[in-house]
Amino acid sequence: MATTKAREDIKNDLKTLKEDLKAGAREETQRLREKAAEAEGRLRAKSDEFREQARGYYEQARVRGREYYDDAAERLDEAQRYVVERVQERPLQSTAVALGVGLVLGMLLAGRRR
Fold first, then answer.
1. What is the CA radius of gyration of the chain?
2. Which of 65, 82, 91, 94 has its Cβ near the most Cβ atoms within 10 Å?
């Protein structure tokens, strides 16, 4: 009978241990979920911060790109006006220069085809 009592005690001890392990596992799981939620919140905050920073960089690049484009367009307009003025001042000389440039380009292109 003593062995039966010892077996019952061991079974009860194992059952208690099993329940304690389950409770500990549940508590640890909950603690890990809370830590994961905190980490996720921090990551979301950082990603929002990086997103805003990227938007700022994009806006700066867009503004600078527009400034460069406007500057280049203005310079091109100035160059075009300069060329038009020079052609109007000396139409025969301009025509001769254009004919000479066209002839040289034609010869260069024809030479490549051979």
1. 42
2. 94
